[in-house]
Amino acid sequence: MTAPVNVDDIVQGAARYLLDRADVVGVLGTTAAGTPLLFQHTLYVQMEGTSTNAAVISYAGGWSGANIHNTARFPRLSLEIYCDPLRNSTKHVTEPGEVHRRIHVVFATLDRALHRPQGGEQRWGDVRTLSSTRLAEPNIYAVPDGDGLLRAQTFYAVEQG
Known about the structure:
The structure is a single chain. With 161 residues, the protein is an alpha+beta fold. The chain has one domain (10-160): STM4215-like, CATH 3.30.2000. Helices cover 22% and strands 30% of the residues. It is built from 3 helices and 7 strands, in the order ααβββαββββ. It has helices at residues 10-19, 22-27, 96-114; strands spanning 38-40, 53-62, 75-83, 122-124, 127-134, 139-142, 150-160. Strand 4 and strand 5 form a beta hairpin. The radius of gyration is 17 Å and the shape is elongated.
């Protein structure tokens, strides 16, 4: 195939869905051009020293075996959140504990959009989802050599039909 694919996959669909939500966009940082820091597959900016937040949505395999009765799919979606601590003009961290509180607020906001255990059809871009369930609480840790940058990761079991 040499033509570009113009249909959403689960990652692009989730990103489009999240970018349509003002609450999600409100907790993410932006580029100089005003684009929210929500990425697909990998983090495309250097976060250290920015004092802001970013999120990455990516495909992380499946969470269930194939359904032999219909064409439903069961992808596992990864959510990574990056939060850089508040810094002064010389890039020194000013309040180390604040970044821990902030990463929980950013997670809670994105989780409200993605965690739908009650089910019900919902469109993520071109992708029809039937449910999306958080598989665990986020694992939060300091990024090695990140000068205080925190990373949180969790996974969602998505039912796609």
